[in-house]
Design a protein that fits this description.
Elements lengths: L4 E4 L5 H12 L3 E6 L2 H15 L3 E4 L5 H15 L4 E4 L15 H29 L2 E6 L12 H21 L4 E8 L5 H7 L2 H5 L13 H12 L10 E4 L7
Amino acid sequence: MSNQVVLVTGALTGIGRATALAFARASAHVVVSGRRDEAGQALAGELNALNGSAHYIRADVRHEDDVRSLIDQTVARFGRLDVAVNNAGTEGKPGPLTEQSAESYAATFDTNVLGTVLSLKHEMRVMLAQGHGSIINLSSTMGHKAAPGASIYTASKHAVEGLTKAAALEGAAFGVRVNAVAPGPIETDMLNRFTGNADRKAGLIPGVPLKRSGTPQEIAKAIVFLASEQASFVTGQIVSVDGGKSAQ
């Protein structure tokens, strides 16, 4: 992992932040992206304290010009792109399907699906030409295991998993691997927003065979593994990191 150029979108909190820190500790050159400049610069400073080679670039993955510029700036600064982690996402508006709207659909799909499409498009544009690369998308156990009250989010993560497999097949002949990590309940602000209160959050735990929620750091470890040479023959896979939840 040393000296690899790694891009993490949605890097300012939760799993994205933990992933950026994990790559920095592994001596990678890390580009972090998000929409809050003060938090982004602060994270870049924290990463630079670890290895001195991090950089923050503002980008909104819903807009192609932003994504194109993000990738081009990364390559201009470091000369290549070895690893991309497409972590930017939203839980949308939880609630019954009968309460969803065209607006709530668009708000979720524009980030989770269109954002992944645009990120894959421009990451692969660079990686196919250079003849190598590893992309890790962020899905969810809900991407292959439906849950009531999460219809739009679930549908968006189904789409991410389909995109992951299709992109893996397109990239394989060029030495580009594409996988996804599907977390279960993870201690993040997103989980807090999704559940809404402590009792509902605690109610998720009995459904996890390991009887606890996961940590962002545990997801980051799986992402670093998938990006590494230790996973050099792994592509097109959805790797569940969920305490056994999807095994039920």
